[in-house]
Amino acid sequence: MRGRNPIRKPVEGSGDVLEVKEVFPTLQGEGPLAGMPSVFIRLGGCNLACKFCDTAFEDFSPWSMSEIMSSVRKYARNDQGASVRKLVVLTGGEPFRQPIATLCDTLLEEGFTVQIETNGLLFRPLDARVQIVCSPKNIGKGYKPVRGDILERCLALKFLISASNKDYAYVPDVGQSLLSTPVYIQPMDEYDAEKNAANLALTQELCARHGYRLSLQLHKMLGIP
Fold it and tell me: Which of 36, 71, 102, 200 supports an S-S bond with 15, CB 3.0-4.6 Å?
């Protein structure tokens, strides 16, 4: 969205209807579960407007729970009808902006692994089996500590790295040292070959210096959603 999206406030309700951009099959491209066949549910709207954001999430519409689950079941199957995509990723936008507990519970009841990708500024109580990956954002005023309720549930923290943007040229301690939370770092895609090469070089340097784990956007490398 490149910061051109409206900043949207959290939505309350039962969660029987959610604002959804799309549901699609892919491979998880980033973080600790990278490479896993998955179904992505892209939820609409975000509570931030990051200038580097490479995702379109504003063209959303109301989807009922039955519509969402019907799409998930369809995309979980391969061409022979076997259910092979066991991971469902809730992304956005910002998933915690909406009442997603009912959706998470339904997915878990049907045997799916559920992962949420969040910026760490919002939270809603969810089943303990839901896995959370937090990617903190610096909106020009420094990083804020990750909420304690997210940090204690967090499977990993994922930071974007940019050699040309001072706000993203380092990895802050947002609470990960307290719980030894695994840290993944990912070169920012700035749609500029020279900048991207510098971002990758800096990311590798930080991994070597601090022991962080490298995260690459596999889906972009493979040319898939």
Answer: 102
